[in-house]
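agent> step 3/5: call structure_predict on target 'ATP-binding cassette sub-family D member 2' (Adineta steineri).
agent> reason: downstream docking stage needs a structural representation; sequence fetched in step 2, passing through unchanged.
tool.input:
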Amino acid sequence: MYSLRSRRAKILLATSSFALIAYLIRRYRRYILLKKRRTLTNSREQTTTNVTPLTRKTLNKRFFHQIRILIRILIPRIRSDSFLLLIVHLTTLISRTFLSIYIAHLDGAIVKSLVQRNPRNFLRAISIFVSVAIPASFINSLIRFAESKLSLAFRSKLTRHAYDAYFRNQTYYRVSTLDSRLLTPDQNLTDDIETFTSTLTHLFSHLTKPFFDIAVISWSLVSMVRQRKNARGLKEVPGMILIVIIITFMALRRLSPRFGKLVSEEARRRGILRFAHTRVIANAEEIAFFDGHEVEKSWILKLYDQLREQTNSIIKKKLWFVMLEQFLMKYFWHACGMVTIAIPFLTYDGPAETDDPIGDPLGISARTEAFTVSKNLLTSGADALERIISSYKEIAELAGHTDRVYTMLHVFDDCAHSNYQRTPIIPSDNPSECSSALAKRKISVDHRAKGEIIESDEDIIAENVPIITPNGDIIVESLSLKITPAMHVLITGPNGCGKSSFFRIVRGLWPIYSGRLYRPDPSNFFLIPQRPYMCPGTLRDQIIYPHTVDNAFVDDSQLMEILNNVELQYIVQREGGLNAERDWKDILSGGEKQRLGLARIFYHQPRYALLDECTSAVSIDVEGKIYERAKQLGISLLTITHRPSLWAYHTHLLQFDGNGRWTFEVLNTEKLLTLKDEKERLESQLAGIPEIQKRLNELTQLIGEDIITTTENEENDD
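tool.output (status=ok):
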């Protein structure tokens, strides 16, 4: 019976072992497959976004270079407020270390008084402990306070520096339009900076105090060990501690996941998800019209699943790593620490040390006090060493945040100096799926534009200037013309031919890749788009934008005259005055917003007004008055429009044909209107030919004659 049970147990054990091995092999193969897929996906995403991946070694020259550059921004000089807060924070950390050593000795005195059964010494030690607890509690709170203040100071310094770079030389436009390295600059400017500064200050606390703790505690322990001169094996204790530390550090480093890369990728996916929500908010009306909520929901859920998968991967990796970390630095170190403490006591062969030869001749209370103090000091030292070693994971995470912040500032600087990196959109192999401009001509955009922009007094002169989109599409290969302030230019052509692109080239928003462009200072240009930008603020702010009330140069009566020029004087009384604050984007109609945008050219009175379909929602009689008043002020009008009613207010015509060709000539309004009337008449006549042919066929069938097509009639005539 026993042998039968033993055989069954062996069979069950073998079967279970085989099943377990098969399961582990299957899981391992699945892990390898998922790892290959994840590596392929990450490589594709990095190729698409041009983001430099973090290497396996987190603490490399690249990281130290990046953190050194950022620290110079955080602490620009010794007398800065951030440096003073750093000194205060460091002082609190050092004070806490000395308090910890003093409290450890107090614990030893309390235990000694208990062993000696001395109530007087016990109450005295307890009283001292309670009195010391008050400043200790204050210092603990002060450490958190100083850390929070230092983090806020670092964040303020870095945020101001980033905003200065973001709003310099139109970087806010270039980084999103002309460059593709930053997908979510809004997240880089907010969440990434906050996370970087808080992680940096927290890591400073977790590294500075442990190093100082280890130094002071080691000195205290050495002083205590020197008192045990008759103990054996003391020379081997430092070597044992060093071996334990090296083994722990090497094990954690070799088995540590790449937290820096994982956290950086998580932050990137979080930014993409936030951008998707922003896009839905910005296009909510169009999505509601088309009932496209299911598509948007599925897309956002897909992005969330990608973020959840990355976060779940980090959580799983942290599970096994934290388990190993806790085993080594909590239980293994505790056992090694007890061995280290026991060596001086077990190997001591000198006379008994006691301060009470009668009550405690063997010195038990003194040994208990020394053991308690040593244990507390070693525990504090082990905690400090644990924070230092476990900080490798936090340093890896800091490396990820550092890389994102440094990359943001580097891209801002590149864009400010016209150095762009953009991944071009590759057109489809099927020409029918591509626009004509994409299918015909495309170049590889260089990082730096080679064209010249030369400031002139008044005229706009283009010499062999190409119009090339940020994606590398060649719209016009070479444009050469001269526009003087006395000219009023009408710009026409089909969609996508380069009309608005010409404005961007002249204003300097797009780079010039060859040729020369002579133009006045950018302050001489003012653009009014089809949908004017309504800034937050009062009605006065809308008129004088981008000026503010502090630097406005007109009074209320002049502002009323400006509103009268665009037939908007009634809006002041309707909305409650010039200082009324409203959500102007939603309150005003389309025509009112366009006229309010046109009011800005009467306030600024630029030399050139760039008008891009800015009167499409304005009645013909009102737009005529606005154009006539603008010409009377000496403003040169460069207008993109499809309305023939505006031809009479222009002197020259710049026409693009959509195939890269263009013409620039004097505008003959009467001739152009005559040709337009003839074109409309011919189109109406041609539109009726199919209906006439159809009716002729019906009549022929009714009277029983043969159907004679127009083509046959032409052949008979021939």
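agent> step 4/5: record observation. Confidence is low (pLDDT under 50) at residues 43-57, 427-440, 705-718.
agent> proceeding.
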